[in-house]
Amino acid sequence: MPTPLEAEAIARYREFVAARDEVDEGKRSWASLGDFFTEDAVYIDPAWGRVEGREAIRDFMEKSMAGLTGYGWSTPENWIMAEGPRVVSQWDQVLGNDAEGRPWVVPGLSILYYAGEGLFCYSHDMLNMTHIGQTMRDMGWRPPKEFNMPPRKPVRDVSLPKAWAHLDPSRKLVVR
Predict the structure, then answer these.
(1) What is the chain's alpha carbon radius of gyration, rounded to the nearest angstrom?
(2) How many CB atoms lie within 10 A of CB 151?
(3) Domains in the chain and their CATH numbers?
(4) pTM here?
């Protein structure tokens, strides 16, 4: 039985997933997902690295997904669990369909920390980028003109924001 905090975190994450599904369907912008984060939140992306602050997260979401959304990419959710303020989810990155209609799929994981009041202060998405690259090659994918390349040297610090470090005191290392 989840604690009240875990139940609240899972419920809010499900709202985030519903909003992300609406983005995949073209009903809302990627930037709107910034509404789910604290002003000082950190978002870790496997290609783009560390992004700090709600407005920077909004900008990152728009830039990083340009040329992907609307080209068959989607992110169906498979399962969600919580332990205290930590939410872990497993989802699939669907990159489109092959000639026979089968989806090109790369599984992913996210770890988020719930700060309360409907907001997350941290999100860390994990994808095997070699798997993504191999799948894109197998697909014969070519980036459309609006696609934006990730930075050459992204920041790889995966620590929680300083103001929220108390949510996981066991995480003392900064990975670079």
Answers:
(1) 16
(2) 10
(3) 4-167 (3.10.450.50)
(4) 0.93
